[in-house]
Amino acid sequence: MVLLSTPHTRFHRSFLAAADEFRAAGEAQHDGVVNWPAEGEFPGVVFTREALDDPAEFERLVANRVGDADEASPRPPGWSSATYWWMEDPERPHEYVGSISLRHRIDHPLLASIGGHVGYGVRPGARRRGYASDALRQVVPLAAARGIERLLVTCDLDNIASARTIEANGGRFEREQSGKRRYWIETGA
């Protein structure tokens, strides 16, 4: 069992250790360090791993992750609001083991084709313990509560573990597209 926690500053050190693990494994795209460059009228939101050592900067990252659930929060043009949870092992409180997010809509062409409603990542040192599968299981009813009837969940073609996670949670394979496997999960909404 994994706890889904609202992002919080109590995870500061373990979040940074996880970011370093992701980077060492060549998976910086999952490190949780937000980098949205300026686009159009959007001023951009950029954090760096080094700057996040500063507790005040990390607090700003936490506020960004929590605030992204608000439709009015700044984001790149066409991107949806999203709710973020940080995964926490209940036997090791305040230990960041990964994250999962639920995009409230997938109107943007990139999200509708390969991004999907749900994104998740488990730090390399915490894999193969069922965290991703349990987190996805918990997010499905949360999506239903938001009125989302079907979730698009994608994974890389070669990510067999993620494909199994999605399938274990009711994911029905649709097709391969742009280097991704596309699955749909009925939420029961």
How would you concisely characterize the structure shown here?
The protein has 189 residues and is α+β, with helices and mostly antiparallel strands.
List keywords for this structure.
single chain, 189 residues, alpha+beta, Aminopeptidase, 4-stranded antiparallel sheet, 3-stranded antiparallel sheet, 5 helices, 30% helix, 25% strand
Descriptive overview:
- 30% of the residues lie in helices and 25% in strands.
- The protein has one domain (3-149): 3-Layer(aba) Sandwich (Aminopeptidase), CATH 3.40.630.30.
- It is globular.
- It is built from 5 helices and 9 strands, in the order E-H-E-E-H-E-E-H-E-H-E-H-E-E.
- The two termini are 24 Å apart.
- The mean pLDDT is 95.
- A hairpin with a 7-residue loop joins strand 4 and strand 5 (96-103).
- The protein is α+β, with helices and mostly antiparallel strands.
